[in-house]
Design a protein that fits this description.
GO molecular function: transmembrane transporter activity
Membrane topology: Multi-pass membrane protein
Strand content: under 5%
Protein name: Ribose import permease protein RbsC
Helix content: over 70%
CATH superfamily of one domain: ABC transporter involved in vitamin B12 uptake, BtuC
Radius of gyration: 23 Å
Shape: globular
Keywords: Cell membrane, Membrane, Transmembrane, Transmembrane helix
Order of helices and strands: HHHHHHEEHHHHHHH
InterPro entries: ABC_transp_permease (IPR001851)
CATH class of one domain: Mainly Alpha
CATH topology of one domain: ABC transporter involved in vitamin B12 uptake, BtuC
Length: 334
């Protein structure tokens, strides 16, 4: 019975995703059309890539509230680089570099000055949004030409954004399961003091987490601007919450130390399907925001309750073991 309950809990996120997919096909006749099936992964790519960066930070006991603003800054500067050079590769590099620089600032504040990640990333996000608005004077950058191939093009039957997503899934999955870096993230999120005592370089691991998050945010910024065919200084507002929601719904614990790549991917698809079907049936954007807020609250409460129950179970089990009578120690014969 316990094994069956454990397996059900482990795969519940995928069962929910399957149920949502089936339910959505009945709610709207347009859901299963080829156009919509192609549009869903294109829409999911940016927020899912952000979710992987958020997942690594949350597992390590941190958070990023600057992702949406840094995405806008990285994306707009990549557009500027492309319009100056007409090089898509250079534009992608610029976006990644900007994302990494912004996240390095957060890393310095968090790892070296012990500023809470909530405050550090919030400050960086405000600076990034203000910087991109100041640079563009609040005006959109239009006429991007071939820059749109990254967000709107396809390689055979596969959309190019989906190829970026596949690479992100593979890289994240490898890092989290096959490297010392991934094990260090789980250890720090579980108990930072114990991680330090075991010889883990906590400062270096936090820097690595922010650098990888910066790479993901930079790539997401380029893909976002390419998909919308404009450099939008006011774009991607609230996207950090989309990434956070995807990670938390996918089983990443806000208290750190728990989370998986496939779970986050499933959480991102759940949020994406929810957004898609609400748009298809004409749900107001305000109601959509309320729904996402409720989902975050329920997911966090469930995580806290499950951890509290597990902790109580461990304590009771330890007390039961301690209360059992022990056999008398044999006396020493002279």
């Amino acid at each position: 019975m316990k094994l069956r309950k454990l397996n059900l809990s482990r795969y519940s996120i995928y069962l929910i995703l399957l149920a949502m997919f089936i339910g959505s096909s009945f709610l709207s006749p347009n859901f299963l059309t080829p156009e919509n099936m192609t549009n869903i992964p294109r829409q999911l790519t940016v927020t899912t890539i952000l979710a992987f960066g958020e997942m690594m930070l949350i597992i390590c006991g941190m958070i990023d509230l600057s992702a949406g603003s840094v995405l806008a800054l990285a994306g707009v500067l990549s557009v500027v680089a492309y319009k100056s050079t007409h090089s898509i590769v250079l534009a992608l590099v610029v976006g990644i570099v900007v994302g990494v620089i912004c996240n390095l600032i957060s890393a310095v504040m968090t790892a070296d000055f012990e500023v809470p990640p909530f405050i550090a990333t919030l400050a960086v996000g405000m600076v990034a949004r203000g910087a991109v608005l100041l640079y563009t004077h609040g005006q959109n950058i239009l006429q991007l030409g071939n820059f749109t191939v990254l967000g709107q093009g396809s390689l055979g039957p596969v959309p190019i954004p989906v190829l970026f997503l596949i690479v992100a899934v593979a890289v994240t999955g490898y890092l989290m399961t096959q490297t010392k870096y991934g094990r260090a993230l789980y250890a720090i999120g579980g108990n930072e003091l114990a991680a330090r005592a075991s010889g883990i370089n906590v400062r270096r691991t936090k820097y690595q987490a922010f650098i990888l998050n910066g790479i993901f945010v930079g790539v997401a910024g380029v893909l976002f601007m390419s998909r919308v065919n404009a450099g939008l200084p006011n774009g991607a507002v609230g996207y950090e919450m989309e990434g956070l929601t995807s990670a938390v719904v996918g089983g990443t614990s806000f208290t750190g130390g728990v989370g998986t790549t496939l779970g986050t991917l499933a959480g991102a698809f759940i949020i994406g399907l929810l957004n898609n079907i609400m748009n298809l049936v004409g749900v107001q954007s305000y109601v959509q925001q309320i729904t996402k807020g409720v989902i975050i609250a329920v997911a966090v409460m469930y995580d806290i309750r499950s951890k509290r129950t597990k902790r109580t179970h461990v304590i009771l089990k330890a007390d039961a073991v301690d209360s059992q009578p022990r056999p008398p120690e044999p006396s020493l014969q002279k």
